[in-house]
Amino acid sequence: MRRLDCSAFDSTALLDACVGELDAQADVDRFVAARADLVQDYEEYATLAKRRELFSAQSFLHGNADQIVRGAISKEDLTALYSDIMVGKKGTARKVYDQLMALPAHSNCPYCGLGQVFTLDHFLAKSRYPQFSVLCENLVACCETCNKIMSGGVATADNVALHPYFEDVAVENTTWLTATLNETAPASVTYSVAPGATWAPELTQRVRNHFGQLKLAARYAVAAANELASNVDVLCLIGSSVDIQSHLAKWAQGLTQHSPNSWRAALYRALAASDWYAEGGYGAHAGHC
Q: What gap in Å lies between CA 72 and CA 113, rounded to an integer?
């Protein structure tokens, strides 16, 4: 997970921009009447997120689009601000959508680090938390796969994952993703998490939730298998096991400095530590070297 900074965004201004693009004056009037309540919801979200307690936010029933959320505003009214105005129109709100989409460096998904940014994910699902449908702090640019996998259910202390806008720097700077090299033909890798020993239990839980919910063990293993296959010819050219280990160690060092919990950093740490791999394990199937 890579942290993102959305502090420059004004969610209240986004709400006003969305409401301002509604076609019917009656709809505008209903939102204006409920505005103070929605702004209070936004303030509560920030407070709970900073406390790592978003699971305490008020949730609503799945379905039942006519549920009243605030004032005379229904669930459908709120979710339509996102789908019809923020995404569907080309006004001020859409510009904010595009700016949020541009936050991840190199369009790399901040949740998994594998896919390309494709859409905005509602960290707290709008189907359950419609009051946060156009809250900037609840909208995270991510890849299509992560967006589909992310739970649309009610957040609890046992399932809430890492939030790119609110996590402590320790999530990025402390190495917690590990890869175990399997001495098979061809070589394969198993990924797991080992959170910091001094971490608070709730941070450890969120890291485990994040890893498990996004199915990162399986997804990273597939990415690693492709990386290992592409490495074979290069390592054959290097030849010497000593030179190969030096090569792998440099990759591990550089990738870890850049992002210690990326799947590639964990992979190369495991490869650099393996005598078996450097001494020919990288080509441990017929037809190589």
A: 41
pLDDT at 288 > cutoff 70: no
DSSP letter for 66, please.
T
Q: How far apart are CA 196 and CA 212, in angstroms?
A: 17
Residue 151 has pLDDT above 80, yes or no: no
Does residue 92 sit within a domain? yes
In the predicted model, is pLDDT for residue 18 greater than 70? yes
Number of domains making up the chain:
2
Share the mean pLDDT of the chain: 95
Exposed (0-12), middle (13-18) or buried (19+): which is 136, by Cβ within 10 Å? buried
Closest CA to 123 of 204, 6, 205: 6
pLDDT of residue 285: 66
Q: Is 193 part of a structural domain of the chain? A: yes
d(CA 187, CA 285): 9
Helices (H), the chain: 11-20, 25-50, 75-80, 92-101, 144-149, 170-173, 201-213, 216-238, 241-258, 263-272, 275-278
Domain shared by 176 and 105, yes or no: no
Residues 226-280 have pLDDT tens digits of 999 999 999 999 989 999 999 999 999 999 999 999 999 999 999 999 999 999 9
- pLDDT-derived band at 289, boundaries 50, 70, 90: low
Please give the residue range of the domain that contains residue 66: 11-149
Length of the chain: 289
Q: Phi and psi of 202, rounded to 5°?
A: -70, -30
At residue 68, φ and ψ (nearest 5 deg) are -80, 130
d(CA 56, CA 40): 15
